[in-house]
Design brief:
globular; 3 strands; minor pseudopilin epsh fold; 2 domains; Helix Hairpins; 7 helices; mainly alpha; binds fe (iii) ion; 3-stranded antiparallel β-sheet
């Protein structure tokens, strides 16, 4: 698996270049690296290797499988996060219309998802759930916690401290507001339309 470059080049407003660089070049890069490392370590076990010691309290296989979903979801969620940044934060298009219908107004949706970001320890994710055919906000306390299988992330809001401490200290609310001010709704719309099309 290859690392994806940052999908925007202009500086963001309220989120520093230094913070974004550490987040992308060190943390996200680390999840890509670990995903590859774990994949390589699993290879022999997937092809007739000794898995007789598999155990739910501790075993090599358990450690690898736990790390696998943590690292891989870390990759996918961060790619979704960076993918919708770099815009002007002005909601428009099919996604904004669908959210306004579902939540009463786009402002009501943003207020609700922001609150979900305050309630979570890792992620608040607007996802399209193709089974229910609806947009839902799900939260997770770690990359491999709280996700709903099949649901496709449209807007992923990282609320781990590493996403904001360098810019706003313990003030997560100001960070979340800055996140929305940088959302590229054109890209969010494209993700939404692709998810609905994949149904
Ligand atoms: Fe992060």
């Amino acid at each position: 698996m290859e690392m994806k470059p940052l999908p925007f080049s202009e500086p963001l407003t309220g989120l520093s270049e230094k913070g974004i660089a550490i987040h992308h070049d060190t943390l996200y890069a680390g999840y890509v690296k670990k995903s590859n490392e774990i994949r390589t370590a699993l290879e022999p076990l997937e092809h007739g290797g000794d898995v007789a010691s598999a155990n739910q309290s501790y075993s090599e296989l358990r450690a690898l499988k736990d790390g696998e979903t943590f690292a891989l979801n870390g990759v996918y969620l961060h790619e979704a996060y960076f993918d919708v940044l770099g815009g002007n934060g002005k909601p428009n298009g099919a996604l904004a219309d669908a959210l306004a219908r579902a939540y009463g107004s786009i402002d009501a949706f943003i207020a609700y998802m922001s609150a979900c970001g305050m309630a979570a320890r890792g992620w608040a994710v607007l996802a399209y759930d193709p089974i229910a055919s609806e947009l839902r906000v799900y939260t997770g306390d770690a990359h491999n916690h709280g996700g709903v299988w099949g649901a496709q992330p449209i807007i992923a809001l990282d609320v781990y401290e590493h996403a904001y401490f360098i810019d706003t200290g313990a003030d997560r609310k100001t960070y979340i507001a800055a996140f929305w001010n940088n959302v590229d709704w054109k890209k969010a719309n494209a993700r939404y339309e692709k998810a609905v099309g994949n149904r």
